[in-house]
Design goal:
CATH architecture of the largest domain: Alpha-Beta Barrel
CATH class of the largest domain: Alpha Beta
Distance between the termini: 33 Å
Shape: elongated
CATH topology of the largest domain: TIM Barrel
Number of strands: 9
CATH superfamily of the largest domain: Glycosidases
Largest sheet: 4 strands, parallel
Radius of gyration: 33 Å
Order of helices and strands: HEHHEHEHEHEHEHEEEHHH
Length: about 400
């Protein structure tokens, strides 16, 4: 099964594969580490040329959560054993979730600091990744981590990390808010989304814009991964395989069968992710052009709305000029005395010119409004064309 997972990840075009490295399995006997399972992962990583993001989790039962230094020592020993094959280490998984970590934010802060220091000593080239935060929309937990005295936690990782699921229009906003929070605490380095996915089972598809089974899952990932990249995600890890139950039972881009071969059924989402990999530059350029045309369309519509107001204003002025001219002409027709006619004739001539100018003003205003509307329509057509290309090619 491990072989199949690595092979499918590589076929999908992944830049990394995220793998649990359970400390209790290695250090159950604290005097004689068991490196067998980790060595298997290292061999698979080398053979498939697929770098691993190792998640250091599940400390051995004999290790107290208060003994951060010993946790750090074990982390450093694992990183040293892995050498250059695993150069990125995530410190626990979803440590803000009670299901995953029994400790407090303060205990996690000290464990993170100890792991960062020890890995830096034993494997200087390795990068430390903060544990993927399960609930980034609630910053209270991470605020406590960063505020822990003596840990200096914001300087105890190279890469920030969070998990994002939900409506495609919301997840990039959550990422942007998370990056703002990190920046307020002085961290401006890379931010990774190490868990992201969307179910293929329509019963669990909660985004109203993406509801229609496995094709909707593929469309969602195309949209969301590009949107997360726009929002500043350095890497986005997409769920590879169906697992567990509920929404996770169909969240993978492949469905793995049972042994001995663990055959894989690749869903439409697999092809969608592979297309993102193969055509990333082209798609991101099209996305940027799409955004530009949308912005230009919005500006043109605003200008058209202003021009329409000007049309109404010019029409009102022309109407008043027409009424004034009609009155002057009526007075001229009714004038008996030559002197009165002499006074009124120039006024009628000026009012005639004025009405002509007002009508020209109406014409120019209408032409301007029409031009802005044409521009908006052209930008809208191009934006729609680019959106269709990004969504499906």
């Amino acid at each position: 099964m491990k072989e199949r997972i690595f092979a499918e990840s590589k076929a999908m075009g992944a830049r990394f594969i995220r793998v649990d490295v359970e400390l209790h399995a290695i250090f159950e006997d604290r005097e004689s580490p068991n490196w067998g399972a980790l060595d298997e992962v290292l061999e698979l990583s080398r053979r498939h040329r697929l770098p691993v993001l190792g998640i250091l989790l599940s400390p051995p039962g004999w290790l107290s959560l208060d003994d951060a230094e010993e946790f750090g020592r074990l982390a450093g020993e694992v990183a040293a054993h892995a050498g250059d094959t695993i150069a990125r280490w995530e410190i626990l998984n979803e440590p803000d979730g009670a299901w995953a970590f029994d400790g407090t934010p303060e205990q996690y802060a000290h464990m993170l600091r100890a792991a960062y220091d020890a890995i830096g000593q034993r494997a200087p080239a390795a990068k430390v990744v903060m544990g993927g935060v399960m609930t980034p929309q609630d910053p209270a937990w991470v605020e406590r981590v960063f505020a822990t005295p003596g840990a200096d936690a914001t300087r105890a990782f190279h890469i920030a990390n969070l998990h994002l699921r939900g409506r495609a229009v919301i997840v990039p906003r959550q990422l942007a808010a998370w990056r703002d929070l990190l920046a307020r605490h002085g961290f401006t380095g890379p931010v990774w989304v190490t868990e992201h996915g969307y179910p293929g089972d329509r019963a669990y598809q909660s985004d109203p814009l993406f509801h229609g089974g496995e094709p909707a899952q593929a469309a969602y990932l195309t949209e969301s991964v590009l949107a997360l990249a726009e929002a500043g995600a350095g890497e986005v890890f997409v769920t590879l395989r169906d697992n567990l139950d509920g929404m996770f039972a169909s969240e993978g881009v492949v469905a793995l069968g049972h042994g001995p071969l663990y055959g894989a059924r690749r869903k439409p989402a697999f092809a969608a992710v592979r297309r993102l990999v193969d055509r990333w530059g082209e798609l991101t350029a099209a996305r940027a052009e799409h955004r530009s045309h949308e912005a230009s369309m919005s500006r043109a519509l605003e200008q058209a709305a202003g021009a329409d107001l000007n049309v109404r204003a010019q029409r009102a002025l022309a109407s008043r000029a027409r009424v004034r001219l009609a009155r002057l002409r009526a007075r001229l027709r009714g004038a008996r005395l030559p002197a009165a006619r002499a006074r009124l004739a120039p006024k009628v001539a000026r009012a005639t010119v004025g009405l002509r100018q007002r009508r020209e003003g109406v014409g120019w205003a209408r032409a301007s409004a029409f031009d802005y509307k044409v521009r908006a329509a052209l930008h809208g057509e191009r934006a729609a064309e680019l959106a269709r290309f990004v969504a499906s090619g």
